[in-house]
Design brief:
This protein has 180 residues and is α+β, with helices and mostly antiparallel strands. It has helices spanning 3-19, 36-46, 52-61, 106-112, 128-136, 148-153, and strands at residues 34-35, 67-70, 73-76, 97-102, 122-124, 141-146, 158-160, 166-168, 176-177. Helices cover 33% and strands 18% of the residues. It starts with a helix and ends with a strand. Bound molecules: ligand HQG.
Length: 180
């Protein structure tokens, strides 16, 4: 499968496993899982024919390991806007985590801290390189350091997704250090 098709399938899966399952007649269970057979049937109905081997390839080769296959089920590892409970246990974060954003957001972030916006959690990266890539989706990236260790000691809960994204409800401004 060529790169273009792989990216197209990955975007299609993200859209329907995180945001709009109903658009193709799917319902995610409470933990975000859907039966692979149901997904493949839905894609066929939609005219976006996808074979099981293409699906396996996209999941295995995915640059950010966005999806998990488990027996006859599949789910997105994080990033949902529909209500799901991924059932991730609380985890102790490293001392620092990083958040990639853009300059336009800084004034508001400085005042209010980080909010989940449309997603369920604020997404934090384990290293600056990853955070830089996240910020670069929106323009010239700005990377903020998050004092995750101090947040954790102050009672904030963290989770880590199956693909290594750190999740927390919000980051108050006092735990952020701005840099460019
Ligand atoms: C910003 C992608 C103003 C925040 C990525 C971000 C990630 C504020 C945007 C994952 C704010 C939300 C998540 C505040 C936060 N005022 N702006 N108080 N608080 N923001 O897309 O972290 O490819 O929901 O800085 O790689 O950019 O989809 O979050 O710019 O891992 O797998 O509001 O999505 O992964 O944007 O990205 P998003 P994100 P996938």
């Amino acid at each position: 499968m060529d790169e273009k098709r792989t990216v197209k399938v990955s975007k299609y899966l993200s859209r329907h496993l995180r945001h709009q399952p109903e658009r193709i007649g799917l319902t995610l269970d409470a933990q975000g899982w859907v039966r692979i057979d149901d997904l493949l049937e839905a894609t066929a109905r939609q005219g976006f024919a996808l074979t099981r081997s293409e699906l396996d390839l996209v999941v295995a080769a995915n640059d950010k390991q966005r999806f998990t296959l488990d027996g006859d089920r599949i789910r997105a590892n994080q990033g949902h806007t529909v209500p799901v409970d991924l059932g991730l246990p609380p985890a102790e974060p490293p001392a620092y985590l990083y958040h990639g954003t853009v300059a336009q957001a800084l004034e508001s972030i400085r005042a209010e801290g980080l909010h989940p916006m449309d997603r369920h959690h604020v997404h934090l990266s384990p290293d600056r390189e990853t955070a830089t890539r996240v910020g670069a989706r929106r323009g010239r990236p700005v990377v903020l350091s998050v004092h995750a260790g101090a947040m954790h000691r102050a009672g904030h809960t963290f989770h880590v997704s199956a693909n290594g994204v750190w999740l927390t409800d919000a980051v108050p401004p006092e735990f952020l250090r701005m840099r460019d």
